[in-house]
């Protein structure tokens, strides 16, 4: 049977042998009692890696982001967030339904907020106004096609945040992709963020889990919110064991995903009917415009699937492909042939 080449997301990655072995052998306890040594070790590792005091294992990135909102803000306040940020765009309205805050959305340049626009969005003191209580940054930015927020941009945003005394939450689901692409350590890249969420279950290949890092007392408050949302997991060391392998063994290889994404993008850009700006491909995400193929996105994806390649819709004429550890150079070649065929040139 032909292998299905799954480029829908880096979340489709399966745990490695080393992860499965670590999970099998993990020492566990009841983490709600704070007694799971493997969870404690992962949390220590994560905090250390990011140069923060504390860390919290959460089942998903979405829960991590929502906990950040719940812990940083009070109901009726306002947060400043990029117009297509995951926390706003893809989290089922949790901002409103769970945290009860309203959003001041700003359109970024390739997902990056202009510090002056942030300044303009921050509420002044006025009896009519809600208080601005959080600035959210996303790195890499998913909807912007895996775009990277560089150190200078982060520092400029932080300067405004500091001026107004407003904390920054960084949605860093793919922060290691950003760090690798920039050649900067994550500690340096996230030093201006008060709190960071990052995923173990995307490019790093763990089956389940994300982490929230921040200062110690803040993490303890987030832990309490996690319990309220039903995220107090018992022998979670089984999951944490894979997370430890993810952090220790799977970060450096992200470079390979970026190399493959570039290869994919270069090939796609040569196919007639496919629109793609090569400069937009900075990490492991490739977004292409398929309008000139004359197909709808759903027809394009259905035809592609018949050729054994999976991708996702990313707008009216946009299709997203993501590279990850479970695809290789041959798969990318196959995927390119499939797109060529679907676009009518195969
Ligand atoms: C995937 C993702 C999340 C959510 O993570 P889940 O584990 O799927 O809930 C949050 N933010 C960004 C930028 C993401 O790409």
Describe it:
The chain contains 14 helices and twelve strands. It is α/β, with parallel strands linked by helices and about 350 residues long. It has two domains: about 5-10 and about 255-340, Alpha-Beta Complex (Aspartate Aminotransferase, domain 1), CATH 3.90.1150.10; about 15-250, Type I PLP-dependent aspartate aminotransferase-like (Major domain) (Aspartate Aminotransferase, domain 2), CATH 3.40.640.10. Helix 3 packs across helix 10 and helix 6 (about 115-120) runs parallel beside helix 7 (about 150-165). Pyridoxal-5'-phosphate binds near residues 65, 86, 138, 199 and 201.
Task: Spell out the blueprint of helices and strands.
Elements (H helix, E strand, L loop, with lengths): L4 E2 L10 H9 L11 H14 L3 E5 L2 H12 L5 E5 L3 H4 L4 H6 L2 E5 L8 H7 L10 E7 L12 H14 L3 E4 L3 H8 L3 H4 L5 E5 L10 E5 L1 H13 L8 H13 L4 H16 L15 E5 L7 H10 L2 E2 L1 E2 L4 E5 L6 H14 L4
Parallel strand pairs: 1-10, 3-4, 3-5, 5-6, 6-7
Antiparallel strand pairs: 2-8, 7-8, 9-12, 11-12
